[in-house]
What we know:
Chain A is an alpha/beta fold. In chain A, 41% of the residues lie in helices and 21% in strands.
Amino acid sequence: MIQVRTWLTVGLMTVVLVAALAGCASQSSSAQAASQAEQTIGNQGSDTLVNLALAWAEAYMADRPNTRISVTGGGTGTGLAALINGTTDIANASRAMKAEEVAAAEQNGITPVEIEVARDAIAVVVHPSNPVPGLTLQQLSDIYTHKITNWREVGGEDRPIVLLSRESNSGTYVYFLENVIRLGKKSDLMFSSETLLMPSSEGISTEVRQNPNAIGYDGLGYVTADQRMVPVAKDAQSPYVVPSVEAVNAGTYPISRALFMYTAGEPTGQVKEYLDWILGDGQVLVTTLGFVPLAK
Amino acid sequence: MNTSSRIRLSEFAVEALVRVAGFSTIGFVLLIFLFLLREGIPVFLQVPLDNLFGTRWYPTFDFFGTLPLILGSLLITFSAIVIALPLGVAAAVFVREVAPNWAREILKPMIEVLAGIPSVVLGFFGMSLVAPLIRTTLGVPTGLTAFTGALILAYMALPTLISVAEDALDSVPKSYRDASLAMGATQWQTIWRVVVPAARSGILTAVMLGMGRAIGETMAVMMVTGNAARMPTTLDSLFRPVRTMTATVAAEMGEVAQGSTHYHALFGIGIILFLITFLINLAAASAIFQKRRRGGLR
């Protein structure tokens, strides 16, 4: 009798579980069906751009219920590959398309069209009381690989340097690594293991605000007024430039780059409307996500 | 249908319901464990072991050395217990043995309230108040250190430690105390030489539970330890930043590509963490059973 009951309960449990699982499965398949019914703009690519692209898509869709924009990340390479294979309408890229990528696209009968949608500048920040006059890219590289460990060596006070960085999955981390630490060259230099990885921009600003030893970096739009932005020079002969929207647009600030969207051929119809909106009204959102809007 | 069979039927229904609830707990734990294994095992196959247990954790560049993370977690957990143990036992002794009744009535609920403070609040408190204090008083380069994490963790483990240790003291029979006092021992001697040793295994359980709480803590630790994946092997490591297993999973899981080696590596860390917690709990359980078998006190 007891055994029968046990089996009954186990059986009942299984039924409940299976029912729950089936519920999940049917829900997701119906959602897929709904998205296929509407006309969608596919938007895929750069993880740096993904949050901005999402913000744009949400704001755009809020006013236009008939348009659906599906935004996915995966990296610039993935996005451009999708464009080349014709599986996405817009590819997000945090770098210009490489020559071999353009060639591959043309082989598939696609002429990629490049549209600059925003700019990304990375500010190097220190405590407001830190007197360091300015840093070259080479000095920044040496600081972040722990070759320079004291502020005295770069014209500051006799204090140890505490390195702050964003988490390794942030696009800013990779950009800083490739263009500052590795100076844009192929090398296997890495962030020193002494680097503190902060989970958020807020983490960096809190530590920079209160610790005179700290150095950090972040998207220009995320820098708050109570941190000091260090002037950065490309090399010792170049002028030291404090990052600003103007300097970035003039191209004088060395740690900045353009962010692109690519379309297959000249954009038409809904895609064109969307891109026009991004270059117009959409630019308001750029600053809120820490990027630099295009010059008017 | 007569009354008695109706009662029997409803009895059966209620029993079945209770049993389903009971069994489903086990079912869910098993499912979670299977999920953890399914997502985590691939990393042990995809990444060579000398990389996986190496000293470099740069997951975006295929260095999956978990050693600094494991050592980081152990360092702050043990430091936290070293800080919390004397405080916790002393607090438990005070509440149970020394404090007058009215004070006990106030203290016990207060200690339970301590356990209810959200860890993110403690983390923020640690980040904006404790860390600067540590930097200025100890003269270390940054206040975001393993020690800061250990302090916050000790604070979080205290309520568990005090409650369980207090229960252990409570289960020491009154006759022990009476005998000791009758032999002419002072109250102090009775507490430290009779009551606390008699409650030893219960206090050990309290330590184990506190440790289990500490090693699994994530949010507060992520906010105050600096998360630098350095090997904590130098002498001053306690006062340098450190990265724990939990903080790594929490910080990186959000944006990792599903199904990638990095994704599996994070679940692999989950498995390692699970094993460590399991061993701690096993040690705690065996401490209890050993004592029982000898017919001693819990």
